[in-house]
């Protein structure tokens, strides 16, 4: 996505703040470690040579609704990171609410139905730091998966490549474009569009010499929404391909599974064979 309207000076401020955070001593970063029974917070998977292991530091947290924000995370971040991140999220929300409306238009369905699902919807963020590794083919930055969100907006800091998307069985590098965001369609939109839109399998590779930083913001419907194929897309010649579940159940079951290739999406398919 180009011409997105997010201020370049804000993006640069955020980039610097994220880099400064990952430059902190480990004991400072561990103050943001997940609390018991929760996956939100700072963590790392820095390998010692294991083949195909993830090689990444990451910080994941909910940022909306307010009642899902962990008190020891966003409110306690270094001021420069917290302020720039909050301003960035506010700008991205404006983009995110426009995208489902565009998709509804291409599918020729009621735009208002789509917007009602996503207005004031759920939002989370993941800031990733991929250190360089001398034998990059032995590790992954992040293994093959699809996003469980409806839409994910990814910003790649400093133009270091590493994101790859699988197309027709072949891994295609996502070329970096200055001042552009990568927009991923997630599993929720594949379900909602009844398979018209596909959530892409993707992974992250590690650079031999240079660190890579990215920030992904995940947008999902509001908590009370029902996740399933849009009623207007279902008829006698186009039956539903997926079951329907509440957003609450979707989240619980999705996050109970390890990050993997569309495992929960496959679980929701009506005809699995």
UniProtKB/TrEMBL annotation:
GO terms for biological process: coumarin biosynthetic process; response to molecule of fungal origin. InterPro entries: DIOX_N, IPNS-like_FE2OG_OXY, IPNS-like_sf, Oxoglu/Fe-dep_dioxygenase_dom, Plant_2OG-oxidoreductases. The keyword Metal-binding applies. GO terms for molecular function: 2-oxoglutarate-dependent dioxygenase activity; L-ascorbic acid binding; metal ion binding. Keywords: Iron, Metal-binding, Oxidoreductase, Vitamin C. Belongs to the iron/ascorbate-dependent oxidoreductase family. This is Fe2OG dioxygenase domain-containing protein. It comes from Solanum commersonii (Commerson's wild potato).
């Amino acid at each position: 996505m180009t011409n997105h309207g997010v201020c370049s000076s804000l993006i640069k401020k955020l980039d610097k703040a994220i880099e400064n955070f990952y430059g902190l001593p480990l004991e400072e970063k561990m103050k943001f470690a997940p609390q018991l029974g929760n996956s939100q917070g700072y963590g790392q998977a820095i390998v010692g040579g294991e083949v195909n292991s993830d090689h990444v530091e990451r910080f994941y947290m909910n940022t909306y609704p307010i009642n899902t924000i962990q008190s020891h995370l966003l409110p306690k971040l270094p001021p420069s990171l917290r302020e720039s991140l909050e301003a960035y999220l506010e700008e991205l929300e404006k983009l995110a609410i426009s995208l489902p409306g565009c998709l509804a238009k291409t599918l020729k369905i009621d735009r208002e139905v789509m917007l009602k699902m996503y207005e004031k919807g759920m939002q989370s963020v993941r800031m990733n730091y991929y250190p360089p590794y001398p034998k990059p083919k032995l590790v992954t930055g992040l293994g093959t998966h699809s996003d469980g969100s409806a839409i994910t907006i990814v910003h790649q800091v400093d133009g270091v490549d590493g994101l790859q998307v699988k197309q027709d069985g072949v891994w295609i590098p996502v070329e970096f474009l200055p001042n552009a965001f990568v927009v991923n369609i997630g599993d929720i939109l594949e379900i909602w569009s009844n398979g018209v839109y596909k959530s892409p399998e993707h992974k992250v590779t590690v650079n031999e010499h240079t660190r890579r930083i990215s920030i992904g913001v995940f947008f999902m419907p509001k908590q009370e929404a029902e996740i399933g194929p849009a009623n207007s897309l279902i008829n006698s010649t186009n039956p539903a391909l997926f079951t329907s579940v509440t957003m609450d159940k979707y989240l619980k079951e999705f996050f109970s599974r390890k990050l993997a290739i569309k495992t929960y999406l496959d679980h929701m398919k009506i005809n699995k064979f």
